[in-house]
């Protein structure tokens, strides 16, 4: 995502996500020290659900997270 979007933070939502109330609290999460906020997968404990991702683009680029995920 950071390769294609220049904004400092991005909220990615899968196409099947329905937002029914304000997402301000999610958007306002402190991402100062982390490149990504996501929900852990209950079954696969080293994975996360990629349906909702809040991305700190600056840190993602600086930490080269894309390479770590591949």
TrEMBL record:
Name of this chain's protein: Glycosyl transferase family 8
Keywords: Transferase
GO MF entry, a single one: glycosyltransferase activity
Regions annotated as coiled coil: none
Record-linked Pfam families: Glyco_transf_8
């Amino acid at each position: 995502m950071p390769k294609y979007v220049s904004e400092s933070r991005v909220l990615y939502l899968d196409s099947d996500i329905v937002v029914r109330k304000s997402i301000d609290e999610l958007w306002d999460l402190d991402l100062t020290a982390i490149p990504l906020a996501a929900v852990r997968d209950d079954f696969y404990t080293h994975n996360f659900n990629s349906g909702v991702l809040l991305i700190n683009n600056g840190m993602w680029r600086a930490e080269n997270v894309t390479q770590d995920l591949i």
